[in-house]
What does this fold into?
Amino acid sequence: MFPSSALMKIDTATALPPYGAPSAALTVEALADGHKEEVLQFLSSRPVHTVVMAGFIRDNGLASPLNRGTFYGCRDEEGRLVGVALIGHATLVETESDDALAAFARIARECPRTHVMMGEQEKIERFWGHYAEGERSPRLICRELLMEQRWPVEVREAVPALRLATPDDLQQVMVVQGQMAFEESGVNPMESDPEGFRRRCLRRIEQGRVWVWVEDGRLIFKADIISDTPDVIYVEGVWVAPEERGQGYGLRCLSQLSRDLLARVGAVTLMVNEKAPGAIALYRRAGYKLCSYYDTIYLHTEH
It folds into this structure.
């Protein structure tokens, strides 16, 4: 198991080559809710890139099973926060310090629950170097485009039926989301974790985070708000029924949703696999622009 103690010292003098010689010891601690404001302040310096972690903290707190992992903070010798990481099912890291990357990687190596790591291309490559030590291989690596939408947003034909999902929509939402996860990662959570997946989908619906267009009982469009922060909203799971594609429905729904969300935040972001040209074209037509390249690394795990 990964370390459960609240505080531990990482001897970065043995940080892994070829990533540079560290200069001093860092302190790494499992974060508690008392650190919430400090951590959110740290993450707020790059809100587009930290929206997922910040959203989890705002929704669940720093110490919650709903995060499906543990938040860690890394401090320098003067006690200043220099890095924050969520290590668990999904591993996310925010730091400019390679020493902190190495420290977080040491913890991640001992976490048996890690399924996926994601982050900016160059940063996640360095993190993986520390994590793998030349001995581990990923199951799958996906290059992704982080795209963002800001004002102004082109006004398109409205979709009056676009609405928040209700629990009555749960089964259709689960089937679509499970299939999307399988197409992206090779793992369908409806099979690997059916009860947990159902709880997570239902909770998101009850939070008012899932938007759908349903006609005659059939799902036409779906999009999920994964993280909602004061500055940025991160959208995922954008889907249009295959038989309805090419008619502009996805463009109209996404444009309407983005316009509504931008009424209260500065940016709406999403990620798309570089091997999905149709989705990339849709997002560009909707006004989304490339912000950064990300890598998503899926690990070998037992399900």
In short: The longest helix spans residues 170-185. The domain at 7-136 is CATH 3.40.630 (Aminopeptidase).
